[in-house]
Design goal:
By secondary structure, the protein is of the alpha+beta class. It has seven helices and eight strands, in the order ααβααβααββαββββ. Keywords: Membrane, Transmembrane, Transmembrane helix.
Length: 268
């Protein structure tokens, strides 16, 4: 029986070849595993937990300030007219003219009117003695053509645009007309370099204007984040660009105004 087994084993060379191949493969894998473990110990690879942010607090401070006083009413036209009439009542001294007999008598005598004081005037109704053609009734002597009543002599006639931006307004007054004013997104601030590693608090000041249609414009960083992370400044600017307001009315017209807002950023 034993001899039969030996004869059967010797007659099957394929099985011996398979056993040899399996031995070589197992030995190679074992050697490779030993080399890998040795290299890993040499490299000293350690697993580091990702940074986590427990909570993030954003504060937006606003200075309480009283609303600006209403603009003073324009001077009444009646007062200006009375001043002009008072000036008209002052008589001018008559200078005696030498009477000379003309050599030729014109066929038509020009129609020349005289004022109450005897001075010659133009034919403009309500004109002032000494005025020039093209002047405005109720004007002042020495004024500029095209000027405005009540203006100063020698001044430049300018027209103020109702949509022109005025001086910066307090943020408390501007926020009174706010329709949509979201805070900076906490997940974006937490993903910045300051939120993941530094975590020191700081303040960012943003300058912005509210246009006549209620949208923010001219958004700029006036005071940067103190810990050298421009991404925090960019997130604050993007937040202000999303704000919307009701138009600010001055004299019945929408007016562009500007202001500043502080973002107090705190990480934990």
């Amino acid at each position: 029986m034993f001899e039969h087994y030996l004869t059967y084993q010797k007659a099957d060379p394929k099985r011996q070849r398979r056993i040899a191949i399996a031995s070589v493969v197992s030995g190679t894998l074992t050697f490779s595993g030993i080399i890998f473990v040795w290299a890993a110990n040499k490299m000293n690879i350690t697993k580091v937990d990702p940074p986590t942010v427990q909570f993030l607090m954003v504060q937006m401070s606003a200075e309480e300030a009283a609303p600006p006083p209403p603009p003073p009413p324009p001077p009444a036209a009646a007062d200006t007219q009375e001043e002009v009439e008072e000036k008209e009542e002052i008589p001018e001294e008559d200078v005696p003219e030498e009477i000379v007999q003309p050599k030729e008598t014109p066929d038509k005598v020009p129609d020349v009117k005289k004022s109450a004081g005897g001075a010659k005037t133009n034919a403009v109704p309500g004109g002032v003695p000494g005025g020039v053609p093209g002047g405005v009734p109720g004007g002042v002597l020495g004024g500029v053509l095209g000027g405005q009543l009540g203006g100063q002599l020698g001044g430049v006639a300018t027209k103020r645009d109702a949509t022109q931006a005025t001086a910066p307004k307090p943020i408390a007054v501007v926020m009174g007309n706010a329709i949509y004013k979201p805070d900076p997104e906490a997940n974006k601030l937490a993903a910045t370099k300051a939120g993941m590693f530094d975590k020191r608090p700081g303040t960012v000041t943003i300058f912005f204007c509210v246009d006549v249609d209620g949208k923010t414009a001219d958004v700029k960083t006036k005071k940067k984040f103190p810990h050298n992370d421009p991404k925090v400044d960019e997130i604050c600017r993007d937040t202000v660009k999303k704000w919307r307001f009701k138009p600010f009315m001055v004299g019945g017209k929408a007016t562009k105004i500007c202001s500043e807002v502080d973002f107090n950023i705190k990480f934990n």
